[in-house]
Amino acid sequence: MADISLSGAPHQVDGIQASYMAQLQRRRLYGGLTLLIFVVLMVSGFNVADDRNAGGFWEGLHQIGDYPADVLSEAWEKRADLPALIAKYFPALVETINIAAVSTLIGAIGGLFLSLLGTRGLAQWPRLIPLFRRISDFMRAVPEIVIALVLIFVLGGGPVPAMIAIAIHTAGALAKMFSEVSENTDLKAVEGLASTGTTWSQRMLLGVLPQVAPNYVSYTLLRFEINIRASAILGFVGAGGLGYELRNAMAWGPGRFDEAAAIFILLFGTIVFFDQVSSRYRNRLTEGQGQ
Question: What does pTM read for this prediction?
Answer without folding.
Answer: 0.74
